């Protein structure tokens, strides 16, 4: 690996730490964190996968992946739809992943709403849904728990869904 490649990777990791810092470990961001792991390919090239990991309510793990090919000094990011974006510029990677990180609270709320719908549609009574939400709020999995605001929004949604009076777009 060249020193130029290492410098690009180091600049990316320093920038990523700064990008994650305001959200890291916060419940509403699913206990956001980054983990890097190296892969050796058959031709002795090294690829580092950086997983930006977070949990949705209930403890399911989700992640944003960034791969760095050290031989090409090139980053690769898959978006939520599976399309690949490649660049040699760390700042372009940040521009690609920042909206996804900032959107984690809404994604968590969408997950809660889908779970409430699933439970109610399968016949779970409102008291059962409330019990499930209380268990989530008191979960020992930091990122899998929910905040008081998420609880409030989930309860409001559950009441509206039970009454079939959802606002448009929900």
Map the helices and strands.
Blueprint: H1 3-20, E1 33-40, E2 46-55, E3 61-69, E4 74-78, E5 84-87, H2 90-102, H3 104-121, H4 126-137, H5 148-162
Antiparallel strand pairs: 1-2, 2-3, 3-4, 4-5
3D architecture notes:
With 170 residues, this protein is an alpha+beta fold. The protein has two domains: 101 residues, no CATH class; 58 residues. Helix content is 45%, strand content 21%. The chain has a five-stranded antiparallel sheet with strand order 1-2-3-4-5, with helices on one face. The model has no long low-confidence stretch (mean pLDDT 89).
Oligomer kind: single chain
The residue fraction in helices comes out at 40-55%
Order of helices and strands: HEEEEEHHHH
List the uncertain runs.
Answer: none
Shape annotation:
elongated
Q: Got a strand count?
A: 5
Q: Major sheet, described briefly?
A: 5 strands, antiparallel
User: Roughly how many Å apart are the termini?
Assistant: 49 Å
Radius of gyration: 19 Å
Biggest sheet strand order reads 1-2-3-4-5
Overall number of domains: 2
The number of helical elements comes to 5
Mean pLDDT equals 89
């Amino acid at each position: 690996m060249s020193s130029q490649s290492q410098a690009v990777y180091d600049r990316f990791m320093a920038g990523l730490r700064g990008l994650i810092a305001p959200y890291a470990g916060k419940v509403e961001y699913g206990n956001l964190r980054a983990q890097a792991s190296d892969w050796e390919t058959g031709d002795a090239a090294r690829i580092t996968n950086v997983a930006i990991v977070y949990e949705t309510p209930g403890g399911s793990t989700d992640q944003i992946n960034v791969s760095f090919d050290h031989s090409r000094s090139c980053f690769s990011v898959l978006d939520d739809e599976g399309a690949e974006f490649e660049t040699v510029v760390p700042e372009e990677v940040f521009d690609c992943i920042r909206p996804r990180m900032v959107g984690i609270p809404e994604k968590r709320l969408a997950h809660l709403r889908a779970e409430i719908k699933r439970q109610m549609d399968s016949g779970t009574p409102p008291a059962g849904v409330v019990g499930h939400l209380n268990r989530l709020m008191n979960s020992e999995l930091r990122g899998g728990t929910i905040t008081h605001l998420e609880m409030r929004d989930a309860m409001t949604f559950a009441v509206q869904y039970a009454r079939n009076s959802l606002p448009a777009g929900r």
